[in-house]
């Protein structure tokens, strides 16, 4: 029983929305919402021209409330009107605009109407739009004309929930023309739209004490390098001085002294093997003396 009540309420809300949309034509009607309150039913109408809905001194609203009370047996209906912010992003308003323009200018200028509305929607910031016009346009045979621009999803949850869709009909001399509009708004989140977030670099500033300590360390290292360079240069100078002194000593000696030194070196080399020969002779004599008493 409770389920039937909910179904009946939703059916009643749908009938109210359909009745309001049929009565409010050429007003820029977008959609209606029905809300339950303790005081009664609250009906919110979204439209692009709220002044035409209100009428002079609120006559149109008063008539609409009376008709809703009688037809749907509402106790205390309260009607509110809100203005649509961006008209070019609402599919229902655009479909109604195309239908009204076709009724005014006829079926001869349907291409101009389609391209103009498509350009207005894309300039407002929409991601994509599709307009389908079916009927006896421009000839006596029925055709379907398609105006398409941008990116539009045709399948998945985004196509069902995210894409705005609306239908309208225009009554012409040749017959009824059906209009279908699909708009993809710019604020929709696509699953394949991935954005990489760049990591922020954290810069840590050093304190004055650390900076002073680093400067002192650099100065010490520079001083050590200078000391090592000076020591190495001093050692090189000493070695060069020694070599120069040796050269001077050799130059000061007379040639006779140099020849005497060479002869003394040669004699030393000759005497060394002779001494070795004497030592071997003494060892042989000792061995002979030891052998003699054994023979006796």
Mean pLDDT value? 79
Which structural category fits the helices and strands? alpha+beta
Q: Which strand order does the major sheet show?
A: 5-4-7-6
How many runs of DSSP E, i.e. beta strands?
A: 7
Number of helices: 8
Distance between the termini: 156 Å
- Rg is 57 Å
Unreliable stretches covering 5 or more consecutive residues:
270-279, 292-296
Tell me the CATH topology of the domain at 88-184: Ribosomal protein S3 C-terminal domain
Strand content: 15-25%
Assigned CATH superfamily of the domain at 88-184: Ribosomal protein S3, C-terminal domain
Q: Please give the CATH architecture of the domain at 88-184.
A: 2-Layer Sandwich
Shape: elongated
Structural key phrases:
single chain; 296 residues; GMP Synthetase, Chain A, domain 3; Ribosomal protein S3 C-terminal domain; 3-stranded mixed sheet; 7 strands
Describe the 3D structure.
The chain is an alpha+beta fold and about 300 residues long. Among the domains are: about 1-85, K homology (KH) domain (GMP Synthetase, Chain A, domain 3, 2-Layer Sandwich), CATH 3.30.300.20; about 90-185, Ribosomal protein S3 C-terminal domain (2-Layer Sandwich), CATH 3.30.1140. The protein is about 55% helix and about 20% strand. It has helices at about 1-25, 50-55, 60-70, 90-105, 110-125, 155-160, 210-250, 255-295; strands spanning about 30-35, 40-45, 80-85, 130-135, 145-150, 165-170, 175-185. It is elongated.
């Amino acid at each position: 029983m409770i389920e039937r009540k909910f179904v009946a309420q939703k059916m009643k809300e749908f009938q109210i929305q359909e009745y309001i949309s049929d009565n409010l034509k050429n007003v820029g009607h977008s959609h209606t919402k029905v809300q339950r309150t303790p005081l009664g039913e609250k009906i919110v109408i979204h439209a692009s021209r709220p002044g035409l809905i209100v009428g002079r001194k609120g006559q149109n609203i008063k008539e609409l409330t009376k008709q809703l009370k009688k037809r749907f047996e509402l106790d205390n209906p309260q009607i509110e009107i809100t203005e649509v912010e961006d008209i070019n992003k609402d599919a229902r308003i655009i479909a109604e605009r195309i239908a009204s323009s076709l009724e005014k200018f006829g079926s001869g200028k349907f291409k101009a109407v389609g391209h103009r509305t498509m350009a207005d929607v894309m300039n407002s910031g929409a991601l994509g739009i599709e307009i389908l016009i079916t009927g006896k346009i421009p000839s006596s045979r029925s055709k379907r004309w398609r105006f398409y621009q941008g990116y539009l999803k045709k399948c998945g949850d985004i196509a069902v929930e995210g894409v705005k869709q609306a239908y309208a009909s225009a009554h012409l001399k040749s017959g009824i023309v059906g209009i279908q509009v699909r708009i993809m708004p710019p604020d929709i989140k696509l699953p394949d739209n991935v954005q990489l977030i760049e990591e922020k670099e954290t810069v840590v500033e050093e304190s004055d004490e650390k900076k002073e300590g680093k400067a002192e360390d650099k100065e010490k290292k520079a001083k050590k390098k200078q000391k090592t360079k000076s020591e190495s240069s001093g050692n090189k100078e000493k070695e060069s001085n020694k070599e120069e002194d040796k050269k001077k000593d050799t130059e000061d000696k007379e040639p006779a002294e140099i020849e005497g030194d060479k002869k003394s070196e040669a004699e030393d080399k000759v005497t060394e093997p002779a001494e070795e020969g004497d030592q071997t002779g003494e060892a042989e004599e000792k061995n002979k003396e030891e052998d003699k008493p054994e023979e006796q």
